[in-house]
């Protein structure tokens, strides 16, 4: 009897967590539909302690701009410019052909249906979700996503299949601000080496 009761309690707990994860994801999707653009401070770090910090800008249609000290990455929704200041070189790729290009739209709307998702914890009013892809097509082994009380994602930790783990944190998120359209355009200056892979 105790065994049966334990199984029922375990099943109920898993069901509640699965429903909670689904509700949280739908809340994030609904919130994201109201966001035309946002800006934030960004910090990308690895487990070995290496990190980059800078500015992040986003607009609907997979447009974004990331400004680090020695790197600038710009997407106009079709192409991605990855500029390395140290070697004065820009590599241009198609957004859809670039496995390293990040897409908020895909992560929020496409990935949940391609992953096993679950609520793995709460921290105050924040929720921590885990995404485990059902196959290797998405290019990562698992991801943990922190969702704020405002249904915004402010932290993502991703582990790839090579065993590397990195974390992206967004702070001071400001949504639906007047971000100029040319923020998502990259102008190649004279002397910059161009590697166009489109």
Brief write-up:
With 198 residues, this protein is α+β, with helices and mostly antiparallel strands.
Output the keywords:
198 residues; outer membrane lipoprotein receptor (LolB), chain A; twelve-stranded mixed beta sheet; 2 helices; 20% helix
Strand-residue proportion? 35-45%
Architecture, according to CATH?
Answer: Clam
Biggest sheet descriptor: 12 strands, mixed
Assembly state:
single chain
Ends distance: 64 Å
Which of globular, elongated, flat, extended, rod-shaped describes the shape? globular
CATH topology: outer membrane lipoprotein receptor (LolB), chain A
Class from helix and strand fractions: alpha+beta
**Helicity, as a percent range:** 10-25%
Please count the beta strands (DSSP E, at least 2 residues each).
12
The domain tally reads 1
Order of helices and strands: HEEEEEEHEEEEEE
Strand order of the largest sheet: 7-8-9-10-11-1-2-3-4-5-6-12
Tell me the name of the CATH class. Mainly Beta
Q: What's the pLDDT, averaged over the residues?
A: 86
Low-pLDDT sequence parts: 1-19
Protein architecture, described:
Helix content is 20%, strand content 44%. With 198 residues, the protein is an alpha+beta fold. Residues 1-19 have low confidence and may be disordered. It has one domain: outer membrane lipoprotein receptor (LolB), chain A (Clam), CATH 2.50.20. The chain is built from 2 helices and 12 strands. The longest helix has 32 residues, at 2-33. It has a 12-stranded mixed sheet with strand order 7-8-9-10-11-1-2-3-4-5-6-12, covered by helices on one side.
